[in-house]
Amino acid sequence: MSEDKAIFGDLNRDTFDHQDPADYMKKFRKGISEELVRHISADKNEPEWMLEHRLKAFKYFVERAMPSFGPDLSKLNFDEICFFAKAADKKGGYENWDEVPEYIKNTFDRLGIPEAERKVLAGVGAQYESEAVYHSLEKEWKDQGVIFTDLDIALQEHPDLVQKYFMKCVPANDHKFAALHGAVWSGGTFLYIPKGVKLEKPLQSYFRMNAMGMGQFEHTLIIIEDEAEGHYIEGCSAPKYGANALHAGCVEVFVGQNAKFRYSSVENWSKDTYNLNTKRAIVEAGSRMEWVGGNMGSGVTMLYPCSILKGDGSHADHLGIAFANADQIQDTGAKVFHIGKNTSSKVVMKSISKAGGKSVYRGDLKISKQASDAISSVECDALILDPISISDTIPNIKVDNHSATISHEATVGRINEDDLFYLTSRGIPMEQAQAMIVNGFIHPIVRELPMEYAVEMNRLIELEMEGSVG
After folding, report:
1. Could you say which of 192, 322, 412, 449 is the most buried, measured as most Cβ atoms within 10 Å of its Cβ?
2. Which domain holds residue 431?
3. Within a domain: 409
4. What Cα–Cα distance (Å) separates residue 225 from each residue in 259, 303, 426?
């Protein structure tokens, strides 16, 4: 058996659509209120400042309007969403995989999480519904001062560090879903890499929604000190029920001077899910931030990872794939704000539309007045697989410094008939030939993932391509 098959097994739709019993949901109510916000904070025994933050965020949420751009969100009914539910009573999760409740453990085993940890990861976290069920980190990195834990636990054990950074990159009044997140966030990841430490193997967290009508609001807080390096991977999935679910997580990354960090994610929510995630990084002088992402599965996605190039000589790479299948809108892109001098960025986005799906690249590039000699390159490539699918490119570029060098390129097209003829004439079935061409199209992005996760991404694309012929 190949190593990738050993890690991920034979991935198929049943792997992700499998539903565990959700009897625990009888204890939790749908809808959002100040009472719920206070309950979440009390349940977690949070410090007073966090409760105050939650209540202020809830006020912003009530006051702020829904987004005035992008996909139609009118069918998202907050009264039908469960904003907080626990499937296990162990606060902060378990450090021993064998202690995780059997039915939860079986779900993550099916997704390949513990096996991947043993083979290729320095540490792993697993969240099920609103709270973490497992977190671990190799002793080698603990001894060097690396902290990798559930954010709820970090709030108890490192309160000053959490308070210094929490929602300072993405303020709660940024937009309606940031406010919602600030009010009801639960679980997530806290990663701290001390000055000069270079984490050689990736860390991973996997977030799973199981129950019908669930909402998940994990908060990922990453602090990379000066001259440190690391790579963090997030995976996400949920089963299909036929009732709306909501994912409104938040990722904040603080990259110190002369440091390097890569954030990779593979988001494969079900078509029931509204994926309205916010991801942002502040990058200091001489540092490099890399975003690598794949988005598919969810009915509606609005996701635009953002790099704020604050320090002189800082750099950002944004690499992304979006796959819009039937009844799906993938509204994704990148935001880069150049503030420091001699900053640079590169954005490469690939999208695929099939069976009437709609993919949108929505970009925001800003060069500030003081950002002299900034360089930025944006490349958007769209592949449309049939006459009924849609692809749009909506760039917003604002340059306030005449010394900047900016390039933007967008292409859209269909699968080349000559390539299909060549492959099928050599005995390759049409559907497989199409999948091969699509995999070649996304290869520049997928190759940036660790090998095991590139295999998973390719398999997910193959699943989306099933039934393309006829």
Report:
1. 322
2. 416-470
3. no
4. 7, 26, 54
b/e map of 74-89 (b: 16 or more CB within 10 Å)? Answer: eebeeeebbbbbbbbe
Q: pLDDT-derived band of residue 61, with 50, 70 and 90 as boundaries?
A: very high
In a domain, 324, yes or no: no
For the segment 143-202, what is each residue's pLDDT rounded down to a tens digit? 999 999 999 999 999 999 999 999 999 999 999 999 999 999 998 999 999 999 999 888
Residue 64: which pLDDT band, with cuts at 50, 70 and 90? Answer: very high
Contact 465, 431 (CB under 8 A): yes
SS3 125: strand
- Domain end position, chosen among 303, 338, 363: 303
Distance CA 361, CA 364 (A): 10
Residue 398: pLDDT above 50?
A: yes
Do β-strands 147-150 and 188-193 pair in parallel, antiparallel, or remain unpaired? Answer: antiparallel
Torsion angle of C-alpha atoms 38, 33, 69, 367, degrees rounded to 10 = -20
Return the amino acid letter for 59. K
Q: Among positive and negative, which fits the CA dihedral 418, 421, 425, 427?
A: positive
Residue 225 CB-density burial (10 A; 0-12 exposed, 13-18 middle, 19+ buried):
middle
pLDDT at residue 132 is higher than 80: no
| Residue where one domain finishes, among candidates 287, 303, 319 | 303
Q: Can you say whether residue 31 is alpha, beta or left, with left for phi > 0 and alpha for psi between -120 and 50 degrees?
A: left
Sign of the alpha-carbon torsion through 98, 100, 106, 108: negative
**What is the share, in percent, of the chain residues with pLDDT greater than 90?**
57
Check if the beta carbon of residue 125 is closer than 8 Å to that of residue 187.
Answer: no
In-domain check, residue 355: no
Best CA proximity match to 120, nearest among 45, 187, 201 = 201
Please say whether the beta carbons of 324 and 352 come within 8 A: yes
